[in-house]
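Morning F.,

Quick status update on the modeling queue. The single chain you submitted on Monday has been processed. Sequence for confirmation:
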Amino acid sequence: MSGSLEVRKEQQQLQQRNLETRYESSYHQSRLSSVSHQSYAAHVSSHGVKTSTKKKEKKISSVSKKDKRARLAVDTEEEVIGYVVPVFRSSHLATKELMESQEEVKEEGVGYVVMRNLFSKDTEFKTRTYKKTRETSIRESAERLALSRKIHEKDEFQRRMNTDSLTHPPEFIMKPRGQTVWEGTNVTLHCTVAGWPKPRVAWYKNNVVIDAKAHPEKYITESQYNMHSLEIKNCDFTDTAEYRISALNIKGESSAFASVIIKRFKDEEKVIERPHGYSSEYGVTFNTTIIDKFGVSFGREGETMSLGCTVIVYPVVKRYQPDIVWYRNGVALSPSKWVTMHWSGERATLTLVHLNKEDEGLYTMRVNTKSGFDTYSAFVFVRDADVEEEGVPVAPLDVRCHDANKDYVVVTWKQPAVEGSSSIMGYYIDRCEVGTHHWAQCNDTPVKYARFPVTGLNEGRSYVFRVRAFNNAGVSHPSRPSDPVVAMDPSDRARLRAGPSAPWTGMIKFTEEDPTVGVVPGPPTDLAVTESTKSYVVLSWKPPVQRGHEGVMYYVEKCMEGADTWQRVNTGMPVKSPRFALFDLAEGKSYNFRVRSCNSAGVGEPSEETGATTVGDRLDLPSVPGPIVPIRSTETSVVVIWGASKEVKNLVGYYIEVSVNGSGIWVPCNNKPVKGTRFECHGLNTGDKCVFRVKAVNAAGYSQSTAESEACIVQAAIATPSASTGLTLLESARDYMVLGWTAPANNGGAEVRGYYLDYRTVKDGVTSKWHELNLKPVTTTSYKVTDLKENNFYQFQVRAFNQAGLGEASKPGVPLECKEWTVALPGPPHGLHVLEVRKDSLVLLWEPPTFNGRSPVTGYYVDFKEEDGRWRCVQERSTKQTFLKVTGLQEGVAYKLRVHAKNIAGVGGPSESTDAILAQTRPGTNEIVVDVDDDGVISLIFECSDLKEGSKFMWSKNYEAFTDSSRLTVETSGGRSRAIFNNPSLDDLGIYSCVVTNTDGVSASYELTEDELRRLLDISHDHKFPIIPFKTEMAIELQEKGRVRFWAQVGKFTSNCQVEYVFNDNIITQGKKYTMNFDKNTGMIELFMDSLEITDEGTYTFNLVDGKATGRTSYVLIETEFAELQKKSEFERAEWVRRQGPHFVEYLSFEVTPECDVHLKCKVGNIKPATEISWYKDKIEIAEGDEDAKKIGKSADELIFDIGKLVIKSEKEKEKEQKKKPISEEIPSKPKISKKDAGVYEVYLQDERGRDQTLLNLTEAGYQAVLNAVFKVIANSSTELKVTSTEHGIIVYSDVVHYLEDLRVGWLHKESKISQSERVKSGVTGEQLWLKINEPTEKDKGKYALDIFDGSGSVKRVLDLTGQVWEEAFEEFKRLKAAAIAERNRARVVGGLPDVVTIQEGKSLNLTGNVWGDPVPEVSWIKNDKPLVCDDHIKLKFENGKFASITIAAVSTADSGKYALMVKNKYGTEAGEFTVSVYIPEDEAEKKE
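Structure tokens below.
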């Protein structure tokens, strides 16, 4: 064994070395340079091969390392569709790479210079002839063969890398390996296939195709990421064969072979077989289990979504963690600002930050271990964010940048799924320089294509781009910004990506400077029109070969077709990139284009012309996709399939829309276009009838939508049944065995139609092939297998089938020996299944054992246990029935059950246990309801809301099918089934159950007992012989005029209902005394009597007859009740007579308004203008001229006396009162109510029709009631306590609407009553209740309360005068106190100085001003804003700190001016100003003249 392992290891190492030499990385996929050809020519000439320089060599354009790019797979329209799988690599290419040179820097090797100088001469070379030895000839021949092989490999490589033909036939990168394994183990063949288009693969066994779907128990095939595998389970001798995998696409077919040999070992031989996936590094095989999986998820743009799974890797190896890789649509994700990944050691989480439509797709989590990998996938849908304006389109998506150059980049995007209320008219492209937040719009005119060239970029700057769509309703939200792109030359970008050069390898290189400085560049080459639309034309070219070391720029020229005049397009600034976009061209016109290169030496010659190019769209809208077909998938999803659009270029994908049939509202199923023609639409409502349509999209826009599909109901599709369980041997004899099994837990959505059984023999642990037992399906869950051999061992398996096909096979049971049973005990029951699962109960059913033992079965015992508990018996005594309701279960706990049969000999063995059953009542579970209709028919009703296609209601009695159909009739309509008892009797007693097929165990039961049957029969009798129900039994009512009304209301009746009125067993009829009425609209029955007399005492009855239904209601009116009603009737009649004249509807009462006005009011009725209204107080009429007469008011039906109304006095009275009082004295307002308002108030109404009066006593208790009402209004109107500060202290106050002296008010401090003092005082000013705290201290802090009496209790207003409230109030007090002191003590001129002094010239002026201030102020005098100084002319004095005087001797006109006495101390400054005017008498003036 060890020798074979070493040989295998050496073979693997050899294959690995061969593979390494055959791989070619994308970095080295460039064409051979001219240097290689020259080296090859020198090599041939040196070996005597005749060459000529005149012969033209085949030109192979060289691509420098700086310009090498990763190769992408493109289709015929040059649309990127994937990556090229690395192709084979020849060894000569690796050697050749060391000889490549970079043309840009002219870095040349010594060999290159020698060969260039050698071949630069035009002379012909002479061939030297000499003799060769045989060894030399053989060596040269071998070298020629190797060289021809290398040339062939090089041609194959160039052919594969041709960008116009990237499609290539299938190719096996890794072929499957042959394996030799032991019998009973599993074998897995792996391989990797490359090719484009993606090849389809098929597995063959000895050239016979393997159908893994038909044999899932034997074969499992997987194909993911170009990796394919075939797993062969439980290998036996028949699996020894040659296996072939065939890969096929449009370019061809390729196959690979692997031999599998199955070895059988002897019983005594011990073989240690390492399982598949064994890790020699850790010495274990890692098994991966993924649980807590994320499902199909829905998010909205802008939200954050997390996807996660719990990964269990067994066994656990210290310091080993699996590799978690996340994929979106098959592309591996890496962390970014939009995607974060986390692995906690147990749970893998992927968080999508700020969801966008680009994030929509199929997400796959792959767990890589040393033993293999495991994956899980689910789809994530991203809905559009809400638009700001209704009708605008949603944001575009997938903005990308292509073909970036120094000042040019092409921006592409994908159109959104929702266009809004109108079609999208175009798109705006915005750009933003990285590092800034300013977005600039790139295009003034909107573009319709989803592709736009952006020019005018600054070289070396990085940019991001976004796109907005617009229609008639407005502009959409911007798309997610693109990835940053740098505006720079592609060769510079490639050099930056390449990183530092390789270390020195020993080759000496030097650079030769060419005399290219000052050389005018040559013409550009390969000028072509790469894009042409109505909006723009894009040109591309290659730089000129001759351009010197300095960079070149370009001028673009255009010429109208048919004209000879060339016009330079970019006159202002030459472009740096070999790309240019031309705008503002005339649509439909033809143009020629050419390009000139320029540098500091000048402008070069023009390139070749492009030829006539017509301005217009080259890309057409996609055609309408083929018809769309919906297929049911799950309860919330539908799979749709459609035909691909024909002859479409640059297809972006398809959008699918769904609508509830008949609604007319279409909603997108995907917000990111899909490229396939199959899509599963999730998030639908179960039971909805939906229609679908699809439209294609490319860069030009949307296609027309397909016609609506056929309506499809959203519900789970029918699948094959799951595997049956509990395969049990029920009876065994010499030549037969009886098998039993449990029906599959999941029938696949359709009724199980039968079962097929397979068998195989087992001998010495070796099994044979499976053979069919029954050609016709078995409809029961048991089967008798005959024609068996005694003492032989057999294995069996069962398959259920339904409408969808054959289901999975059950697990093969243990080998069973065919021999006769001789035991006395019965065999195990079989066919266990559970119905009516609820949170605390379930019903278990089973079938009797096939083998009864030596005596018949007499009963059964049922055992149950929790999933990890021990078995316990359900009942103490056995049951003879084959069903049992198990109660007392605990909600949320899973249980297993089994059954024992017993006979006289004892209790037999247990049956196979059921699967774990979770005790819970599922939402929407209904029970059987018993119903008795109007005709007395008794029935059982069961409804099912989870009805599926093909579901049926199956009724049974005592869990057995009905045998006597004459006793029960079943009617079913939709999701409702009704079992009707034809003739209910004691024979119908039992348990009735109903099971709905093709559902997840929907069932219920109803037990009809004898007592329940009697109750139902009573109800049925009442319905057959009905009694008319009354909503309201007979009642009595007293109406106006003392009229008496007897009434009742019938609940249910027909138009044929008749009423009979009876008094004391005598029928009464309509007449003067009685009035009858029966309103058949409302069911109201009425009997009226105008008055009650003594003879009317007795019993009143309404007898009703309505077909076969009858009704009766009575009212007994006798003795005390009759006497009281008669008295009330007479009073009401008297009241009615009173109301015929002027009367009071509401008698006189009082009310207090929120303003504390007291009003006496009463309502009157039947008043005429001539009716006299008189008010009296204390028996004295209030005359018209009295002061109280002004308080009387009247409205339409209300009289008011305003006690608290202020009487408005005339203007003359006001003036007289004002003159009598001093000006400073205010006239106090009259109180709202006072004691003089107490008294007895009366109002009289009188006219020719009658007289009425009302009285209100407002003395003593009445007056106090008014005061209490006023007190309540005042107390409730009080505001919350407020605090203010003065120079003396702090005031706490509350405002009220009014104040009365009788109102009791109290102040509390810290729950203690405050007593009056000089420092703390309380009082009232106007409508303000206040508490003054003079000179407050810290002791005055605390909680203050105002207690106001409200007539019955008190109202409290509380203020907590602590903390910030106290600090602010106390600081304000100190500030005001300081300000008051400053105001009292500041310096000021009290008096003594006139305003103006007029004095004759020559006279002396003496003025004295009184001064006040503490401290004594400083005094100064000024004249015309200049200070005065004491001298002989002016004397200034300040005496006693109070008197300041100024004396001017012999004043003159010069002394005239404005004077001021200035006083100043630390509290302030004040000036007493006056004017001095000196005049000259007239005679003196004349003398002077």
